[in-house]
Amino acid sequence: MATIKTTLKEKIGYGLGDMSSSMFWKIFSYYLPFFYSNIFGLRLDQVGVLLVVTRIWDAVSDPMMGILADRTHTRWGKFRPYLLLMALPFALSGIFLFSTPDVGATGKLIWAYVTYIMMMTVYTGINVPYGAMLGVMTDDSRSKTVLSSFRMFFAYAGSFIALFCWEPLCKALGGYDTPQGWQHAMIVIAAACLVLFILCFAMTREKMHSEITSSIGSDFKSLIRNAPWWLLIGAALCSNLFNTVRGSTVAYFFADVIGQEVTLHLGGLSFLFYAGLFLSIGEVCNMIGVALTTPIAAVLGKKSTYIVSMAALIVLSIAFFFVPVSAPGYWVMIALQVVISIFTGIISPLIWSMYADVSDFAEERDGTASTGLIFSSASMAQKFGGAFGGYAVMALLGAFGYNTAAGAVQTVSAIHGLKLLMSWIPAAVAALSILVMVFYPLTSKKMDAIQQSLAAKRNLG
Q: Which of 245, 356, 374, 423 sees the fewest Cβ atoms within 10 Å?
């Protein structure tokens, strides 16, 4: 059975799109709660509610964008035009999000809601079509895993750059503890994101063409009765929740448990150990995990690879709880971050590749090529996982008695809570994800049969 191939240029171009998205997304996920509570001036409960309430709009906007993209027809394809159309609004929305107006407490809260909703809407407008492109660049399940691996490799490279540079940029451009520093740093990141999405548009092509002949109601009916989709949504939510809980706790963990910056020594060298370095080490190791995904999944299958990786994350996360806060302990924390991040790096491309499989399953069974709608659920799962993760961190910090006042000394309970948020709590989320994935039915054998059936039905144009 002949398959549609993608060139190296197209793989790299596709990767540049998620490099752009991830530079924004990781800063939002890991630093935005800290920014809102410690720089912008919102209370912990206000931040938590904001992160969850705004998801109500996402529950509407994400599928709307998927439906719109599925029914778009241009000479550039269905999904690719949105990369060019939304690139500038994407960059500007990020800058607005990290701007602090001098409008008083109520005005700030309104500004936070407006700019956060605007950012997530624009994020939907560019990332739902971008994600759906994976389903129309190649028709082979294994090739989609390769393409997804390129995507995630570049995504983690972008995350590494953004996280490693974020705190130094803030300090150099106005101060890490000032609103100006955060806004100016985001202007630099946003400019880079704009260029990357334009390059993604220029270097990619849509090669598979299908016409939507079903009604919107039929598409939704197909989606609702798609059991693999429901299970994958659950697994993706857990995966995003795991990453967000750990990641958004790191800034607080360093500020109040380790110290904003500590000096570590290696041989005759000394270097600063800070939150951005800890997170960026994770991004590099995520890239290692991405490189391992294709060969491991080829042997174990996507489902088994996911389950084994999550089981490892349970053990490693629990081990983090018992690491002492000391110079030797910091090295152990780095080692655990390395291994944890390799396993989370393996999981990420699996999830995106499995969404493409779910789309093929729906098309083969129901005859509806609603690729955009299915990938919109991927965006929604990512944002809901991030929102509930952020809300959980804010709510638990409040419950543990965390004090956001400048220079506050945290209680024993608050410190203990921060340690739990870095260990046992994400471990419990990983355990839940395994329970969900056990029931996922789209094995490698099943997908081979689906693709053989689809080969006779598709117009490969």
A: 423
Would you tell me how many other CB atoms lie within 10 Å of the CB of residue 3? Answer: 13
Q: Are 283 and 156 in contact (CB under 8 A)?
A: yes
Question: Closest by alpha carbon to 433, among 348, 333, 335, 339?
Answer: 348
CA 109, CA 112: separation in Å to the nearest integer? Answer: 5
The pLDDT of residue 461 is 43
Calpha distance 179→98 (Å, rounded): 8
Distance separating alpha carbons of residues 232 and 377, to the nearest angstrom: 10
DSSP assignment letter at 409: P
Give the count of alpha carbons within 13 A of 248, CB side only: 33
Residue with tokens 């690139």: 87
CB atoms within 10 A of CB 76: 16
Give CA–CA dist 371/210, Å, rounded.
10
Tokens standing for 345?
A: 């790096």
| Side chain identity at residue 316, one-letter code | L
Position 92: which residue type? L
Closest by alpha carbon to 354, among 387, 309, 306, 287? Answer: 306
pLDDT in tens, 242-286: 988 998 899 889 888 887 678 887 777 787 788 888 888 998 898
d(CA 117, CA 61): 11
Instruction: Give residue-wise pLDDT tens across range 281-301.
Output: 998 898 899 889 889 998 999
- Name 41's Cβ contacts closer than 8 Å, sequence gap at least 6: 100, 105, 108
- What is the Cα–Cα distance from 59 to 227, expressed in whole angstroms? 19
Structure confidence by residue, pLDDT tens digits, 69-78: 888 888 888 8
Residue 230 tokens, joined = 């429901």
User: Residue 120 corresponds to which tokens in the numbers above?
Assistant: 């997530």
Which has the closest alpha carbon to 370: 174, 215, 252, 154?
215
Three-state secondary structure call for residue 420: helix
Which tokens in the block code for residue 288? 């290692």
DSSP β-bridge partners for residue 272: 263
Contact (CB, 8 A) for 185 and 170: yes
* pTM attached to this predicted model: 0.74
d(CA 290, CA 154): 10
The C-alpha atoms of residue 340 and residue 347 are separated, in whole angstroms, by: 11
Identity at 164, one-letter amino acid code = F
